[in-house]
Amino acid sequence: MTGTAAAVWQISAGPAARSYADVFLKHGVALIGPGDAGPWTPERGDEVFEGSFVRRFASEIADGDIVLLRTGLARIAAVGIVAGGYEYVNAFDDVNGWDLQHARRVRWGRLAAEHEFSGAVFGANLPRCSRVWHEDALDFARRFVNSPPTRWQSAPLPALPVEEPPLPTVPEPIAALVAQAADLLPLMLDDTRFGELPSEDEAIVHCVVPLLRALGWPPERIAVKWRYDVVVTDGIRYRLYDGRRGFAPVAYANLARLKQSADECFARLRRP
Fold first, then answer.
1. 240 near 230, Cβ under 8 Å?
2. Per-residue model confidence as pLDDT tens digits over 59-79
3. pTM
4. Residue 133: which of 116, 120, 114 has the closest Cα?
5. Structural domains in the chain (count)
6. b/e per residue, 232-268, with b = 16+ CB within 10 A?
7. Which structural domain, as residue segments, surrounds residue 145?
8. CA angle 152, 155, 161 (to 5 degrees)
9. Which of 15, 114, 204, 265 would be 253's cystine partner, CB 3.0–4.6 Å?
10. Same domain, 75 and 195
C-alpha cells in the first residue's frame, strides 16, 4: 500500500492525434523526450534536453511515487506506481514519431473509463511531466492506489521491447526521398527557421506524392485526402490502417528513422 507521503506526478501521453498511452500501458513504462541527445546525467545541462523536464523526470521522481497518465487537459487514463530508477531505453526512439528514450518503469492500474477532473488540476500551462499539487487530483490518486483490487501493484512488470534494428537496405526507388527526409526533418521541427511549421499541403507536394509515385502509382490513381483514413502521414511518418479490420493500424514507416518493419509499410503502399 502506498502511503500519503508518496509524491504524485502527472505525465503526458502525447497529443490526441498521436497518443502513446497504449505504449506506456503495454510495456509498463513512463516515457519522456527529447531522447535523441542521449542519456541524462547530472553533468549534462537542461539546455541539452530543451528544458528541465528530463532532469526532473530522471532525478526527482522516486521509486514508489504515484503517476497519473494524462490524456487531455484534465483527463487521465491510468494511475501508476513507479517501480525503479531512471533508464535510457533506445527501443523507444520512435514512438509515433517521438524520441522518448528517457524511461521509468511503472506498474499501471488502468481506469475502467478515463476520468475527467473538473477544473485545471494540472495547471494552466500543461507541462509534459510535473508534480501534482491540486487536492482533487491528490485525493483521487491516493484513494485509487489504496482501494481494492490492488493486485496490479505487485504484478510482474512486462518485458521491455527489444530495439528494432534499422532497415539494412533502403529500397532503390525511394532512396533519394529518404535522404531528403533526413535533411528536411530538422527544418520541419524548427519553427524559428521560417517563422512557422510547414503546412500540410507542403508535406503532400514535397513528400507524400513523390513517395507514392516512386512506389509505382500513376497520378490518376493517387487520391489525396480520400476518406482521410487509409494512410495518415505528416510527410515523414506514414501509418497505414486496414479498412477490413475496422481501420486498425497495420504498418508504420518513418523515412527519417527507417526500421526493418518499414518494409511491410512499403510493401503495402506499392501499387499492386
1. yes
2. 999 999 999 999 999 999 999
3. 0.81
4. 120
5. 2
6. ebbbbbbbbeeeeeeeeeebbbbbbbbbeebbebbeb
7. 8-153
8. 110
9. 265
10. no
